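Let us practice reading a record.
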Amino acid sequence: MLTDDRLALAVMAMREHVNNEGIAEAGLGLLQIMALTDEGQASLLEHNAVQVAVAAMRDHPDQETICDTGLGFMQIVTSGSVEGCGAALAQDIIPLVSDMLTHYVHNSGIQEGGLGLLRNLIDRGYGPNDQALRATLQRDAYEMAMNALRVFPDHEGVQEVGLQLLQVS
């Protein structure tokens, strides 16, 4: 119950104070921590936390820490979760991720989180009839992964998720 109470308060604050960067960043940080458990992920999906997180990133695209924390959260909540991937795709997240990867090309956290999110969406995020989405996602993911691999040759996290993304794209 404590998890649901904290989550409800975070989601409410993020919805009521959309222009407050501090609330967006702190709320995303809490969502990211809560996503680390199966119980937390289930609660996050019940409370539409994916929608709130995507809205925070859209509302604050020039705030690097919000984008970094938001993509980290999205990578976790979509990892191993068809429901999390579906919630992300319902928010039309792919253009947002592409914009962040392009805008913050020298931020390893954003590159790792964004590429990881794309990998998860390719692995689990579409049905068998969504071949057009898969083709677009794979094409875009390939280009973004190649760029990140070149920019961060010494960053193990970016290298790992970039290479994983190349395997599926």
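A brief commentary: The chain is about 80% helix and 0% strand.
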